[in-house]
């Protein structure tokens, strides 16, 4: 277990290119791993808000002063009251001191609570922003396939299902600091009012037992963090049970009891680990004995001194109060637990925040990021040269020595079996992953040399698993070019070409309808409507200058008419663009200028529809298999005579 509350395997690897930290962030992440999570949290506070941290520090000092004054004030008052002379000056001084203490407590406590809340909220915001920023920073997405990074992101979101955000640690901290200061002040007062060995003995006992408890809590927190996989599973099961996407299947397949049972098991498995690490009965018994012995060692001499008149009433009163005040050095239960649990997210958030941008390009390139701009590309071609690729943590090579050319301004359809690597090709083309070997070039220049953002401005993509954003229709289309000025005409035109125009007219809020039933006046769409919307989004990017259109299974959810309309518009849609079309529908595929068949990690066949049919290879076989049912149907529709003639037997008879 490391000091940041992470286990050894998951923190010090930094094995992927993208998970290496750089510069300031790297140094901070390294420091974070070495220090305890509480120290890391404390170091963050002035960075988050210098003013609030300073104000809190001053308040805490004032409160500690108040706690030092309380025993003195009581001592003075009791001494004055028990004095046979009943000195009015003594009584007044005692009362004034008590008044100051009460005033400090009454006035400062609510201010401290409010400041702690504000600083805690600011810390929560800063850590959430750091996590989001870091997770989004790498230009590629390989880090999201990395279990270590997933683990850190999970911890950064606050530990497990308990979800204690770092802000709660601030609240715990400002509760604990005055306690500890009170303990220290009490030690000094006990020394003054008794003998100096007394606070040493009692303070040591409280510090030792307090440290034991703290270690138990740390073990428990790390056990909690070590259980993120288990708790993540529990969190997922809870999500499945309580949200809309899985609601249909859960009911249809009768998964209710199964889900409840699995959730309960996963939750308790995670929690039991924590409890096991937390409770050590032997140590607890030892702690109690140690504290009893230390108190007896101090109280008995005090009683002796009191009965033999060695100490004044004032000193005895102060000593007894200080004795109680020393409790503040020991175990502070929930506050300590909360402090450690809620701090655990901070080092993880810093580690995620320190993820680096991604692989850098060749030295000496131009452009804002030191790389080539890609505006207007490709002018000649996009080329895959001997490309090999395996997913991080994947089972093996998906692509192996793949060569492929996409002439600029033409369309290429990619076909192949499930899992052949077609979508992977599109992800490499978008620079979301980098080839393990070989290269992807644009007009002869390695894609790595280009600024990824600039290259992606040239792309308009509909992924197979496109996102259904629960935002307005306008946003869903506008995301195609988020930085573009609001352009109603372009939105309408993209929606028209994508086949969505008209759907929005039926929605309660038109273009501004939130696309989720979970929002007021929101509504969901059908699968096909979502697909049209995703296509409109890509076409909006085209309207704003994208030159490469990538369509991965663009008609999978469309009805026959919509699919037919898309074919009819295909040439219009793709005119002047470099188009990549991934599809299992050969009616769509045959519309492309060229077709590439992916098999065994390479391009097995490449040519026009007619050329590949004439070659009689894999493409021709796949095409016939898919068109056969329609041929039979046509025969059937043409009548029994025609059908008989098309069966092998019938043809033989004919
Ligand atoms: N993020 C990932 N991590 C690990 N392996 C992956 C990942 N994504 C895809 N794969 C694997 O890579 C292989 C190729 O997947 P890809 O999605 O490119 O296939 P495809 O040809 O598009 O398939 P389909 O026709 O089913 O859409 C598959 O074996 C898949 O399991």
From TrEMBL:
Residues 1-15 have a biased composition (Acidic residues). It is a multi-pass membrane protein. Residues 1-30 are annotated as: Disordered. One of its GO terms (molecular function) is ATP binding. The keyword Transferase does not apply. The chain crosses the membrane at residues 51-70, 90-108, 284-303. The keyword Isomerase does not apply. It comes from Streptomyces crystallinus. It comes from the Bacteria. It is found in: Cell membrane. Residues 17-27 have a biased composition (Basic and acidic residues). Residues 382-625 form the ABC transporter domain. Keywords: ATP-binding, Membrane, Nucleotide-binding, Transmembrane, Transmembrane helix. This is ABC transporter ATP-binding protein.
């Amino acid at each position: 277990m490391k000091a940041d509350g992470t286990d050894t395997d998951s923190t010090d690897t930094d094995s992927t290119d993208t998970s290496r930290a750089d510069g300031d962030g790297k140094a901070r992440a390294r420091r974070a791993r070495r220090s305890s999570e509480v120290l890391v949290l404390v170091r963050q506070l002035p960075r988050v808000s210098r003013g609030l941290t300073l104000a809190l520090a001053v308040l805490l000092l004032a409160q500690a002063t108040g706690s030092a004054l309380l025993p003195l004030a009581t001592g003075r008052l009791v001494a004055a009251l028990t004095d046979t002379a009943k000195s009015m000056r003594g009584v007044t001084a005692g009362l004034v001191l008590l008044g100051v203490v009460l005033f400090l407590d009454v006035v400062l406590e609510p201010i401290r609570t409010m400041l702690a809340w504000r600083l805690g909220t600011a810390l929560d915001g800063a850590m959430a922003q750091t996590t989001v920023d870091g997770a989004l920073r790498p230009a590629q997405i390989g880090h999201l396939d990395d279990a270590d990074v997933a683990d850190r992101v999970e911890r950064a979101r606050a530990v497990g299902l308990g979800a204690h955000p770092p802000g709660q640690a601030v609240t715990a901290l400002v509760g604990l600091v005055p306690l500890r200061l009170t303990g220290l002040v009490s030690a000094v007062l006990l020394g003054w009012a008794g003998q100096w060995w007394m606070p040493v003995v009692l303070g040591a006992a409280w510090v030792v037992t307090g440290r034991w408890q703290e270690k138990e809590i740390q073990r428990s927190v790390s056990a909690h963090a070590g259980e993120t996989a288990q708790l993540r599973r529990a969190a997922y099961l809870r999500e499945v049970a309580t949200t809309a996407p899985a609601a249909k299947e859960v009911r249809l397949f009768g998964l209710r009891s199964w889900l409840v049972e699995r959730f309960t098991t996963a939750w308790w498995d995670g929690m039991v680990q924590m409890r096991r690490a937390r409770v050590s009965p032997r140590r607890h018994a030892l702690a109690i004995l140690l504290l009893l012995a230390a108190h007896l060692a101090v109280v008995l001499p005090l009683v002796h001194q009191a009965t033999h008149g060695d100490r004044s009433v004032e000193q005895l009163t102060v000593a007894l109060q200080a004795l109680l005040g020393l409790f503040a050095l020991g175990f502070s239960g929930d506050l300590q637990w909360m402090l450690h649990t809620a701090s655990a997210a901070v080092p993880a958030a810093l580690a995620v925040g320190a993820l680096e941008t991604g692989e850098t390009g060749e030295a000496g390139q131009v452009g804002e990021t030191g790389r080539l701009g890609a505006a207007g590309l490709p002018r000649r071609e996009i080329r895959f040269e001997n490309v090999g690729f395996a997913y991080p943590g994947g089972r093996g090579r998906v692509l192996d020595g793949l060569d492929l050319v996409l002439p600029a301004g033409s369309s290429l359809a990619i076909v192949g079996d499930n899992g052949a690597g077609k979508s992977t090709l599109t992800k490499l083309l978008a620079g979301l992953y980098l080839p393990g070997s070989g290269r992807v070039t644009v007009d002869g220049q390695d894609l790595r040399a280009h600024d990824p953002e600039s290259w992606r401005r040239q792309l308009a993509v509909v992924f197979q698993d496109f996102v259904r954003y629960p935002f307005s229709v306008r946003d869903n289309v506008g995301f195609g070019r988020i930085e573009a000025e609001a352009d109603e005409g372009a939105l309408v035109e993209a929606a028209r070409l994508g086949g969505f125009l008209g759907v929005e007219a039926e929605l309660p809020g038109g273009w501004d309808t939130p696309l989720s039933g979970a929002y007021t006046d929101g509504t969901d769409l059908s699968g096909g409507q979502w697909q049209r919307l995703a296509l409109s989004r890509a076409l909006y990017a085209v309207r704003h200058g994208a030159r490469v259109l990538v369509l991965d299974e663009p008609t999978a959810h469309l009805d026959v008419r919509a699919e037919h309309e898309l074919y009819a518009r295909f040439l219009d849609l793709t005119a002047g663009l470099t188009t990549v079309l991934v599809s299992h529908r050969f009616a769509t595929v045959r519309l492309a200028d060229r077709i590439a068949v992916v098999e065994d990690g390479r391009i097995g066949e490449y040519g026009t529809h007619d050329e590949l049919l004439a070659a009689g290879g894999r493409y021709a076989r796949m095409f016939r298999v898919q068109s056969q049912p329609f041929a039979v149907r046509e025969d059937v529709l043409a009548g029994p005579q025609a059908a008989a003639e098309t069966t092998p037997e019938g043809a033989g008879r004919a």
